[in-house]
Amino acid sequence: MNSLDFSIVLQAWPYLWSGLLFSLALTAVAFVVGLVLGTGLALVQHFEMPVIGKLVRGYVALMRSIPLILVLFWFFFLVPIVLGHLGGSGRPVPIGATWTAFITFGLFEAAYYSEIIRVGLRAVNRGQFEACQALALSTFDTYRSVILPQVLRVASPIILSQTIILFQDTSLVYVLSLTDLLGAASKLAQLNGRLVEMYLVIAVVYLAISSAASQGVALLRKRYAIARR
Amino acid sequence: MFAVLLEQTADGQRYIDWLLSGLGWTLTLAFFGWWIAFIVGVVVGIGRTVQNRAVAVLARLYVEIFRNIPVLVQMFLWYFVLPELLPASLGNAIKQIPPPWGSFFPALVCLGLYTAARIAEQVRAGIEALPKGQIEAASALGLSGYRTYRHVIVPQALRLIIPSLTSEVMGIYKNTSVALTIGLMELTAQARQISEATFQTFTAFGAATLVYLALALIAYQGMALIDRAVRIPGTGRAEDVKPAATRDAQQLDSLPDAMEIVK
User: Fold this and answer.
1) Nearest 5°: phi and psi at B50?
2) To pair with B195 at 20 to 30 A between CA atoms, which of A149, A157, A170, B249?
3) What SUPFAM superfamilies does UniProt report for this protein, alphabetically (chain B) (predicted)?
4) A119 and B255: CB-CB below 8 Å?
């Protein structure tokens, strides 16, 4: 083979950088949407609401049983149809791959975050609920001011670990031909034929970001362990 | 709605045959990948816990590298990059492997070694969860380091971690879908191909989804069965022994390993 030439990566860097920014934006949006929606899904299950509780359980189980790539294909196909019906025209509304990615990752991650929060909710001491009742807090205030802050705090290392995995999973938008970090590298590799350098460099970028983040989470976990009763 | 699956394809088969062939590849990849992952994972997991610093550092490095690079990128490294880095004759020989094996083997190695890093962490957690008395008793009996691991530590640790290995089993069969990016026609790829050939996207994806759901159920039940069969008597399930509050708190502690994997 030819000798490696990493100077090509320097030229390509602006494009790779924009790809990385897309990966990070997708991660951030999926994190926020997934966490908010996931908390909602967890609460619905926690309250054991009739019918809708069962539906949510089914949704979470389904999302956790099928591969993310298949979910991406599903949403790419389904979301335009659903939007068409919601819009009243009945005709599919094409939304493009970028929107599909954001919607899919938000909804998909919600299922994973909701499992974490659901278990966290069960771990809250009964006394906390009883104390809220004794203080005559409404159900809404109980959860907003007492229960959820504790759950989010206890579960934060797990939530963050899940987010690191989410960041790695954003590379799967490759199947929608989007230009995330991996997509940028693969498009450049096709143009200049230097796929060895391209893939090695982005592997190192992913590795650096993910392991730095994992170290951070480990640190957080350690500090939290001391504060614990 | 699934009637279209029984129709003839352009190559004289039925669409359901495409789906079954995809399922075959998914299962083959998951099955053999699992055994690679399990063997490498146990070895690396043991390596994480031994006194020897060099071994421990190497094992740690293995886990860090294979866990922190996305599985799709690893797939490309095995498929596109490795043949280029090897000596030309060997690299060309690899590129000459006829399809579908040319995609199957890189996918197998990729999924096996990727999942191994996750299993290694579970094994390490299992070993560290054992009471210190076990090792002390073994050395009081004069067992060598090797025999302590072989007869005392590893058997117990493996029995402890079976519940958390369930999510690894589910992870590996779902990750087989990533192999479609290097051209392996596994279940998801076949579903997409059927959808493109028939425009019956709902049917094609629906059928694949049902198959994946069935696989998840089988994996879950199978692991529960194994867990019941080999659980260490007396340790029981935490649920049986402990009051509810501790049980739930404990469940939260075990979450990181159990939850973060499955995609």
Assistant:
1) -80, 165
2) A170
3) MetI-like
4) yes
